[in-house]
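Quick question, first post here. What does this chain look like in 3D?
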Amino acid sequence: MMFVELFTPWGNLDATGRRLVAGRLGSLCELTGGGAPVGDGTAEVFRSMFQVVVHEPEVWVAGDRPLGPADRPHYLVRVYVPGPWRKDMSHTVIEYVTRVINEVDGGNPAVQVHVLGVPEGGIGLDGRARTSAEIVDLLSEPHQAELGAGRAARDPLCGVIVPLGDDAITLEADGTLHAFCCAGCRDAYVGRRERADRA
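> Answer (accepted):
Ran it through. Tokens below.
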């Protein structure tokens, strides 16, 4: 569901730094802003589809000159998500990636983030192409019974089923209680409502 490629010049990170940044960029807890309100079952499905790779090219040219050890550390991060999710996820993903790299690097790195949408049917899981709706179904499957029993709600933005526990991110609007898989979905939903109200 998400594939993260981090590029940084060779030697910028030691082995511990590479493991730390990859682990944090691949963390559902980091992405959702400190918790996994989607529930353990959904979190496990999400983790099974979340991959991070660190690349360290020996040559890195910024502007018109190769970077050296004395230059400001540079990072380029590509985050691939299902195409229909790209617009709504971009703000959250860019903030999360930039925050993690700034905290791990500890200096003043140059961070560039690209959020790229994979076309519908362009993500293969278990040997077959999956649409974004099928990925939502996979993420929601662990909580189908809770939804039917009224102990979960469907995120109005991404469609994932969210258990209504104490740590759930919720919002009441027009007399309806909405639950969200993460703060980013809630913020994007609020932004849509505000834009619709102004129109």
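Residues 8 and 75 are 5 Å apart (CA to CA).
The radius of gyration is 19 Å.
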